[in-house]
UniProtKB/TrEMBL annotation:
<keyword id="KW-0472">Membrane</keyword>
<dbReference type="InterPro" id="IPR018499">
    <property type="entry name" value="Tetraspanin/Peripherin"/>
</dbReference>
<feature type="transmembrane region" description="Helical">
    <location>
        <begin position="74"/>
        <end position="99"/>
    </location>
</feature>
<feature type="transmembrane region" description="Helical">
    <location>
        <begin position="45"/>
        <end position="68"/>
    </location>
</feature>
<protein>
    <submittedName>
        <fullName>Tetraspanin 13</fullName>
    </submittedName>
</protein>
<dbReference type="GO" id="GO:0016020">
    <property type="term" value="C:membrane"/>
</dbReference>
<keyword id="KW-0812">Transmembrane</keyword>
<feature type="transmembrane region" description="Helical">
    <location>
        <begin position="19"/>
        <end position="40"/>
    </location>
</feature>
<dbReference type="Pfam" id="PF00335">
    <property type="entry name" value="Tetraspanin"/>
</dbReference>
<keyword id="KW-1133">Transmembrane helix</keyword>
Length: 166
């Protein structure tokens, strides 16, 4: 059986839409998990992530139904929507590439100053104190290194000779 005909295209499109469905459910699940555990305090960000997940889920559902039933109208609208999504992504990518490093810094700083709740969460969780300055928490890594070394130091390699010294 040669891959490249109708059956192969149908199976590839179904697999792609199942992958889109999994990604959309992952987006929705991670956003809900972040709200549930109180990791994210900005409901606007979570709302956008959930909305993108729902949009992707609906688009994947349209594509999957269109591919399974070979429904021409659904496949046409699926193609048009994916084309529009591609154009938006391409435009955003071009705009991002057009910014130089100084403009990126200014844009990030404006966003940093406009999101008070997210900024406070980041500063509290990462122990930093501003947009341009930071404070790495080396003590936590040092304690982790000491603990792992202590645990590993007295262990014997099961593959080693048991009569050998330690």
């Amino acid at each position: 059986m040669v891959c490249g005909g109708f059956a192969c295209s149908k199976n590839c499109l179904c697999a792609l839409n199942l992958l889109y469905t999994l990604v959309s459910l992952l987006l929705i699940g991670i956003a809900a998990w972040g709200i549930g555990f109180g990791l994210i305090s900005s409901l606007r960000v979570v709302g956008v992530v959930i909305a993108v997940g729902i949009f992707l889920f609906l688009i994947a559902l349209v594509g999957l139904i269109g591919a399974v039933k070979h429904h021409q109208v659904l496949l046409f609208f699926y193609m048009i929507i994916l084309l529009l999504v591609f154009i938006v992504q391409f435009s955003v990518s071009c705009a991002c590439l057009a910014l130089n490093e100084e403009q990126q810094g200014q844009l990030l700083e404006v966003g940093w100053n406009n999101t008070a709740s997210a900024r406070d969460d980041i500063q509290r969780n990462l122990n930093c104190c501003g947009f341009r300055s930071f404070n790495t928490n080396e003590t936590c890594l040092a304690i982790l290194g000491v603990w792992l070394t202590y645990r590993y130091r007295n262990q014997k390699d099961p593959r080693a000779n048991p009569s050998a010294f330690l």
